């Protein structure tokens, strides 16, 4: 999990903390590993049943939370991970997904079949890892890469500089910038 996954965004209306799918999914995966670990031990039967029930309840709670973020969440993840994923289907999932479904959108942003239109939409997402994936994606188009090179919230220009779809003049400027940064650093 990235440190940026721990950043929580405040909802404007409720002043409540929004837990993204990235966080909830990570918790569920951890709980599943704990359950697997428990089943590999030999505690007294009553303790085993009690702990198993508690863990299963926590896992089901996380599953419900994921489905609250985005209905049929596991099925949508399965569609994205499928070898049969089509660009049109990925585009439709991006349009329908709520902004806090970081995990689904991050998977789509790194999917080899994501098209330029889908990547352009994802380039505007607030989660930095999604924008990073778009900046390095081989299907990102020149306008999207140009837009990302101007992002001041993080140094995406570095990734854009090495994307083969970046327009040559912009690529040259960005690589010159990188070279100047390297020259200004004191050598050790």
Name the poorly predicted regions: 8-15
Order of helices and strands: EEHHHHHHHHHH
Number of distinct beta strands: 2
Q: Span between N and C termini?
A: 32 Å
List the domain count as a whole number.
2
Helix content: 55-70%
Individual helix count: 10
Reported for the largest beta sheet, the result is:
2 strands, antiparallel
User: What is the SS-derived class?
Assistant: mainly alpha
Principal-axes shape call: elongated
Radius of gyration, CA atoms, in whole angstroms:
21 Å
Write down the overall mean pLDDT: 90
Strand % is: under 5%
Strand order within the widest sheet? 1-2
Tell me what you see in this structure.
It is a single chain. Mean pLDDT is 90; it is low at 8-15. The chain has helices at residues 21-39, 45-69, 73-81, 87-96, 102-109, 116-122, 128-136, 142-149, 156-161, 168-184, and strands at 9-10, 17-18. A two-stranded antiparallel sheet has the order 1-2. It starts with 8 loop residues before the first strand and ends with a helix. Helix 4 (87-96) runs parallel beside helix 6 (116-122). The chain contains ten helices and two strands. The chain is elongated, with a radius of gyration of 21 Å. The chain has two domains: 3-69; 73-184, no CATH class. With 188 residues, it is mostly helical. Strand 1 and strand 2 (17-18) form a beta hairpin.
């Amino acid at each position: 999990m990235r440190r940026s996954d721990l950043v929580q965004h405040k909802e404007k209306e409720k002043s409540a903390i929004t837990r993204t799918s990235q966080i909830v999914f990570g918790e569920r995966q951890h709980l599943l590993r704990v359950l697997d670990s428990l089943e590999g031990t030999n505690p007294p039967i009553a303790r085993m049943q009690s702990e198993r029930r508690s863990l299963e309840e926590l896992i089901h709670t996380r599953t419900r939370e994921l489905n609250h973020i985005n209905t049929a969440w596991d099925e949508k993840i399965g569609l994205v991970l499928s070898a049969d994923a089509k660009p049109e289907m990925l585009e439709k999932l991006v349009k329908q997904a709520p902004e806090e479904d970081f995990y689904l959108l991050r998977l789509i942003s790194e999917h080899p079949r994501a098209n330029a239109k889908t990547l352009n939409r994802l380039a505007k997402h607030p989660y930095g890892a999604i924008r990073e994936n778009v900046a390095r994606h081989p299907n990102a188009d020149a306008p999207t890469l140009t837009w990302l090179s101007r992002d001041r919230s993080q140094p995406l220009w570095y990734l854009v500089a090495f994307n083969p779809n970046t327009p040559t003049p912009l690529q040259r400027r960005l690589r010159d910038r990188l070279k100047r940064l390297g020259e200004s650093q004191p050598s050790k």
